[in-house]
Amino acid sequence: MLNRKEHPRPQLIRKKWQSLDGEWDFAFDDDNIGLSENWFRKLPATHKILVPFTYETERSGIHDTSHHKIVWYQRSFEQAEDKNRVLYFEGVDFETQVWLNGSLLGTHKGGYERFSFDLQPYLTKGTNTITLRVEDSLSCEQPRGKQRWLKDNFGCWYVQTTGIWKSVWLEEAGNQRVNYLKLTPELDLDLLKVEVELKDAAVLPESKSYYIEAEASFKGELISYHKGLFHHNGSNFTLDTRVKENADSGTHRWSPHTPNLYDLTVRLYTQTGELLDEVYSYFGMRKLSIENGQILLNNRQLYQRLILDQGYWPESGITPPSLVALEKDLEKISAMGYNGLRKHQKIEDERFLYLCDEKGILVWTEMPSTYVFNDVALEQFTKEWLEIVKQHYNHPAVITWVPFNESWGIKGVNEQARPQHFTEGIYHLTKAIDPNRPVITNDGWEHTISDILTLHDYEETGLAFAKRYSDQHDFATHGYSNKEKILNNEIQFNDGWFAFAKGFSYRGQPIMISEFGGIAFTVDNEGQWGYGSQVKNETEFMERFEKIHAGIQSIPYITGFCYTQLTDVEQEVNGLLTADRKDKVDLTKVKEINERRVNFSEMKIENNF
């Protein structure tokens, strides 16, 4: 049985792989002399660094939080057989050049998606040396997420991330191999649609034929088999997902209550029967849909209780310190009664997504933002986002795509045509890849075309929530503009934001409060902050927490919420947990509030799963 938790890419595993995480040679290149002095042949290392932690972090062994534009890495590995190996990088921020034994393998631009290089023809028996040159900047044109672009932290932006920040590994694989699997559940038909992409399929010789073999199983029982010819640069087929032991529907559904996962093995053969490749994957059978202003999971109403999760650790920045750390975060989330999370401004380690698949925790995938809008930013954002959608597509836990947040990187979207066209284009490109998941174009406000109307509201009282959202049509049409606000029992007016950008209007989409709360608790030092007035103790915290949840839960048409946030992050101290994951409040009380049933005049919020 393969251990999916250990492999950096649990959705497509080969048995023969080798982790390259660990100690590498490292050097700063502040004078940009490395290329001219051929550091790719022999690196004059000044440091040792523990990959995949960046030099800014304590876990790296360097812990220098100042910005260095260019950094170099080097390490060796042994090759015993004359077989091709593929070098994979899960994430390197930002512009990367890679050499093997002094020969350039290639380049990559982007901080968040996976990329790889074949090591032939430069791979030799014996010792081989990999060298990286990584160039990062403080440019706001590149997707930054929560990485600061100034010298010091400010607001909700934190220490930058430079270089390798996710796992690196080698796999033994042939020149012709399975490059990608796209797995689409058709729950109502009890079928899985499988699309197989081969490496360089477009240049396959016409004289060569390949066969694809696929086996789907559930808890060790073979339930479906396929073998067919690979043709037209792709191989598309379906697998029956009905299991004999399941007399009700035949198919074991994936949901937060029943996170059932099927195993999938795919093999590639030549026409004469030679096995070229074998990969292992998995899938979950679930259906997402929207009807009458409600989000449905497996044809049942889904009320989402999400928590905003930025995925930062004091000792390791945005790189998880360990698999155990990821599991503990998810255990805390479940213990507090949340059925999902919004991974905020970060593309998380795919092992985290596997754990969410396994544990039944819903995930919103959100793209790290740029902070200017021009052609350079537009092109880089689009390239990275579409690759991320492709790489996260098969995870059943991922239920929503969030390309933009709070108009970051799309300044002027409320009134100007160009950023509006950009958001519409990203929406349609995302839906072209994945027509089944909801896409939120601008989480928070000023939506253009969007499958869900999501709102960010850090009001401090439940009364204000209940009053502001009492009229669904009025709010969805006008947003915050000229809406009254209740603060300290006095009515005030707030110009605020519009729910939709000009030229766009509400069309009956589900409505969610996708950021709220953010209660500042235990602010000890100057520069620390949270939303609204600071509370002084747990009693004050829980009183405010309870009331703002009651305000949202009392509104029948709201289909869910996302509380800010799971943990404190650097100067931001509005987590339910401290930055080092200690409970700040009684988690059982949080769970009771999240999971309580609230009686409405016409409906109830039910814990459907």
Helix-strand layout with pairing:
Layout: E1 17-19, E2 22-28, E3 47-51, E4 70-79, E5 85-89, E6 92-93, E7 95-100, E8 103-109, E9 115-118, E10 126-135, E11 163-164, E12 168-172, E13 178-186, E14 191-198, E15 210-218, E16 221-230, E17 235-240, E18 262-270, E19 275-283, E20 288-291, E21 294-297, E22 300-301, E23 304-309, H1 323-335, E24 340-343, H2 350-359, E25 362-366, H3 375-392, E26 398-402, H4 417-433, E27 453-456, H5 462-468, H6 472-478, E28 483-487, E29 490-494, E30 511-517, E31 519-521, E32 531-535, H7 538-553, E33 558-564, H8 587-595
Helix pairs in contact: 1-2, 3-4, 5-7, 7-8
Explain the overall architecture.
The structure is a single chain. The protein has eight helices and 33 strands. It is an alpha+beta fold. Helix 1 (323-335) packs parallel to helix 2 (350-359) and helix 3 (375-392) runs parallel beside helix 4. The chain starts with 16 loop residues before the first strand and ends in a 14-residue tail after the last helix. Strand 23 (304-309), helix 1 (323-335) and strand 24 form a beta-alpha-beta unit. The strands form nine sheets. The chain has a seven-stranded parallel β-sheet, with helices on one face. A six-stranded antiparallel β-sheet has the order 3-2-4-10-7-8, with no helix packed on it. The protein folds into three domains: 17-172, Sandwich (Jelly Rolls), CATH 2.60.120; 178-287, Immunoglobulins (Immunoglobulin-like), CATH 2.60.40; 289-595, TIM Barrel, CATH 3.20.20.80. Residues 18-170 form the Glycosyl hydrolases family 2 sugar binding domain. It comes from Enterococcus saigonensis. Residues 178-286 form the Glycoside hydrolase family 2 immunoglobulin-like beta-sandwich domain. This is Beta-glucuronidase. Residues 289-593 form the Glycoside hydrolase family 2 catalytic domain.
